[in-house]
């Protein structure tokens, strides 16, 4: 295999993941209802979700309407995901604790994505050109805390993700800011890299894992339930590397914790 010739676009990755994927079905618990958040900075946000045929539509505070995906990995925990204003927005809400976290991800323009890694390193910039903003929130009318805490509990773990019969990856959670991924089987077979990441604890054995890839600008957002061995989430990027339309496709996997070691950096 020539590794230099096997990087693929997010659009092609989405096509590879689409067949017989282990994704969750849509959840309609919010259909016809409003969802209101209070952010840690004192601002608020509210939206309502309608069902139009088989597609859910979110009505945003700025008046925009767009398609939305809503799923529930476990009872009381919801993942809400959509694209608006050239960014991807994901919301994780725990209706039991009343805590929520909203994240907004943006992809680079071609000019920024074309800056070589050495120049970004010399300038003291992150190697990835994908940006993400986290906003701690609580659900209006419930809960006392904002957002979810960052966690070190995944550090040192080696986890296998089976997204479909044809797509299998492994993750090594190295430290608080980096992890390594490796495609064992699938359209990226043999490829691997180490990328920037974030870990949040939602409940015992339930985590939010977010990563920002640098070679092909990509944002990944995954809820990881280690107790049940299941995930749900999405991958966001440009369909044709850094040009063209957005690709924001759903992902889900059956996961297996292969082993765990004490990380060198905690």
What does the secondary structure layout of this molecule look like, with pairings?
Elements: H1 10-18, E1 33-39, E2 44-52, E3 55-59, E4 65-74, E5 77-84, E6 87-94, E7 99-106, H2 110-113, H3 117-122, E8 131-139, E9 157-162, E10 168-173, E11 178-185, E12 192-203, E13 206-213, E14 218-225, E15 230-240, E16 243-251, E17 254-260
Antiparallel strand pairs: 1-2, 1-8, 2-3, 3-4, 4-5, 5-6, 6-7, 7-8, 9-10, 9-17, 10-11, 11-12, 12-13, 13-14, 14-15, 15-16
Domain Molybdenum cofactor biosynthesis protein F N-terminal: 6-108
Protein name: Molybdenum cofactor biosynthesis protein F
Domain MoaF C-terminal: 150-259
Helix content: under 10%
The strand count comes to: 17
Structural class: mainly beta
Largest pleated sheet: 9 strands, antiparallel
Strand content: over 45%
Number of domains: 1
Separation, N- and C-terminal Cα atoms:
36 Å
Low-confidence stretches: none
Let me know the average pLDDT.
94
How big is the Rg? 18 Å
- Give the count of helical stretches: 3
Explain this structure.
With 266 residues, the protein is mainly β. The chain has one domain. It is 7% helix and 52% strand. It has three helices and 17 strands. The strands form two sheets. It has a nine-stranded antiparallel beta sheet with strand order 16-15-14-13-12-11-10-9-17, with helices on one face. An eight-stranded antiparallel barrel has the order 1-2-3-4-5-6-7-8. The protein is globular. The model has no long low-confidence stretch (mean pLDDT 94).
């Amino acid at each position: 295999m020539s590794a230099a010739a096997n990087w693929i676009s997010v659009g092609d990755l989405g096509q590879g993941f689409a067949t017989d994927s282990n994704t969750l079905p849509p959840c309609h618990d919010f259909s016809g209802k409003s969802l209101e958040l209070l952010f840690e900075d004192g601002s608020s946000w509210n939206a309502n979700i309608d069902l139009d045929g088989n597609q859910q539509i979110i009505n945003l505070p700025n008046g925009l309407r767009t398609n939305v995906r809503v799923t529930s990995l476990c009872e009381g925990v919801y993942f809400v995901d959509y694209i608006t204003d050239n960014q991807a927005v994901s919301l994780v809400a725990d209706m039991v604790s009343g805590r929520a976290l909203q994240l907004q991800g943006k992809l680079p323009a071609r000019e920024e994505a074309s800056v070589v890694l050495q120049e970004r390193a010399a300038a003291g910039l992150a190697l990835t050109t994908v940006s993400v903003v986290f906003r701690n929130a609580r659900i209006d009318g419930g809960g006392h805390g904002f957002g979810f805490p960052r966690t070190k509990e995944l550090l040192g773990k080696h986890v296998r993700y089976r997204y479909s019969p044809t797509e299998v990856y492994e993750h090594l959670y190295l430290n608080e800011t980096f992890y390594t991924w490796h495609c064992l089987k699938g359209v990226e077979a043999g490829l691997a890299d180490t990328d920037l990441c974030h870990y949040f604890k939602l409940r015992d054995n339930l985590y939010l894992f977010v990563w920002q890839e640098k070679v092909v600008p990509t944002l990944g957002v995954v809820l990881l339930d280690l107790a049940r061995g299941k995930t749900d989430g999405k991958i966001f990027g440009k369909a044709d590397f850094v040009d063209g339309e957005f690709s924001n496709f759903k992902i889900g996997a059956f996961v297996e914790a292969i082993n765990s070691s004490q990380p060198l950096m905690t």
